[in-house]
Queue: 2 jobs
Job 1
Amino acid sequence: MNRIIFSLVFLVACTIVQAQEAINFQKISLSEAKAQAKASGKLIFIDGYTSWCAPCKWMEGNVFNQAVAAKFYNANYINIKFDCEVGEGIDVAKQYNIRSFPTYLFLDAEGELMYRSQSRMETPEFIAEGKRALDPNFQIPTIRARYEAGERSPSFLAAYITTMTKVDPASTAEAKNALDEIADPSFLKSEAGWNIIELFGQSPKDKYGKFFMDNRPYFKGILSAEAFEKKEAHLMKYAMYDYIRTKDEAQFKEGLAYFSSKTDEASQVDAAMFKVEWIGAHGTDKEFIDYTNQLRKGLFKQEDERLSFIARRYSGKYGTGKEPSAKILKQSYVLAKQAVALNENSYSNQGTFAEICITLKKKKEAVKAAEAARALAELETSKIVKIADALLARAQAI
């Protein structure tokens, strides 16, 4: 009897632990969620998704099931989700003007929108968004009233722009102009100035990114190594794509040296991908083949996603907008085939390989890959299933 009781207690404990390892999305209506919010004093979190939305499925499998996210959202919110194309979800999408997926709504007990966010994001960012939604300094009714009352401090403007960009981007133009006027060099070297650079410095060509890049020695001296390197690398990545686009070889080589000199694997991968992009845009077929062979036998030897991405980008179906040569197409086939060998259970890998085989009129391999992609599509969205059906039909028609 004691053994049975122990087993039951253990089972209940395991169930509780498992429940805490994923966000508890209750299967209740919005009105029921409002009642719970009113009784508990919590806000409501709504995940607005669709059945065909790949980023929605990614969040489900990579973020909503993380214990740290579950702990935060389960403690602070009444969590519900709606397919915005089915049932009550249609009305919710219409009421809150949901047009892209996933969209995240944070409501009070009356259903008033307190904060809004969207798109795929990593767990720390997702939790940070949840924390902003709880902070009155970022809540829509509060900041809207403060803005209309004439408040224009830099920190407030930053919060206003951060929040309202996700609600009504057009409404932030005036606030951005006001912030630009206030943010002179002396201000940008303050702690509040750094916060604004961190939020709004997206490119070495915009006001805040350029100021950071022009004053790197200063910021390196006052910031933590982690904060400085994160912002510098972010801006350098934007710069590299610009150098490739404008064919600025001298600046590109300098940027490539920046990433290549770092010892971490992520930087080495970034350097390799930038070099592939440069060669793909400005190099010869031989250079592309030699370098991608070097990668597939070395740094990317086990990187099926990277190999598949390069194959997909340069095979002409989804990539650069120019027709690939026969040699580049053949090399894309080699890369895609290796990606499938490394991970045959990837829809992306199989679909890419099938597309290239169709182009090369390799019917047997095309059908095999397309059939595998179709089977894997069952684990994806309804939209992906339709694409896989069409892919298989084209393979069979060769």
Job 2
Amino acid sequence: MELNDNKDVLNFHLTKKHIFWFLAALVLSGTLVRFAAAYHRVHYFDLSFYVDWSAGAVKDLFGVYENVSNLDYPPLFIFPLYITGKLLEMPWVYELESFKMLALKGWQMLFDIATIPLLYLVLRRHSKLAGLMAASLWTVNPTIIMNSSYWGQTDSIMIFLLLLAFFLLTGHKPVWSGIVMTLACLMKFQSLYFAPLYALYLLTSYRGKKIGQTITAGAGVAIGIFAPFMMRSGWKLPFEIYMGGFEQYPAACLNAFNYYGANGLNYEYADVVLFGNLTAENLSMMIIGLSLMMLLFFYFTASEKSVWLLGFIFMQTIFMFTTRMHERYQIPVLAFGLIACFIHKSLLLFISYMGITVITFISHFIVMENMISYPWTTWMEHYDMIIIVMSMINLAVYLITLWISVRILYRHGVQDLVTSFLACLPKKKLTAPIVGPVVLQEEPACGFPPKLE
């Protein structure tokens, strides 16, 4: 560290040694905080499923779908659950509730902690200091700590795999990226929401040979993991898992702070009529189509873009306006938004990230308070009204973040957006995506590279 007397500022020179020990301190601190949360908060809300699934995996690993009736996860999570089941068979673990919590939440904490150095690696290409700042913010993010360590949900595993997949994809390693993206989709159904953006980048950034190798590698991993389970449960197993999981929660809203929550439709069936003959499910399908069109438009016309910003916008839209959303499904936008605000150097986007952090934390807090705290506190008697009010706030935050994001995508403001839209009209045949000027840095902060071999 050096003091510059002329400018009266501190200039930092980060060496590999400094960065290593800083990240080590973050990982250690994050581990201890998560360990304490997991150890002391004993509950079985949703964790009871993992108890049953892990026991079924130990009893008959590849026949687990036949023996466990409520198993609705894809098969990747079964392998770590097998180890969890073995741990739960140990008397010193099973007889101590706090140790059982560590066993049941351990994988979630492990991947949550692994995301800390991963965020640094993602942003190191643009700024080492930004990478350390993002890693620090993730270490203390209250929503993530509550999700992985307090509640014990598996979203942290999916987030780690998604970030790693896009990191490898944008880092000229598409084949490895395809393998990791496949693992993400084999971990949780919600990873498929990011598949359109992933496919867009892959198809427009790489040539046919690499695309073929990536698809082949991904397909090989999917078949290799599913095959032993399909041999016991039938060839329809993938369809039963993904479609069955989708149909298992036919509600318009499941504690999510979104459009349907704002309309008081929490736990109402998705086929509820909104107005006229339009049901919530029909509106949701329309929104999915419009969201895909929006993604395509932004992808091919924006003058400044990144997969992180586009993933942030797309998943925010899907969460806010489609049915069957749980409160947890907004969490991935935190990771994508955090990376995007540093890449695009946007203070307003960073403020949006902080706002969404507060909102997602409140959503987790009230769900946990509602489900496992007894007797209820007085304010929990107004649970439904809380969801309506917070959903309205989240909708307002969504509109603000969308405006901020569009301003980033189109650096020259409304005129740039209108010009891009007019260029997409079928007056002329477009032969290449419209891109803006390139800003020279260690590597381009925004925009996508030409096709790679």
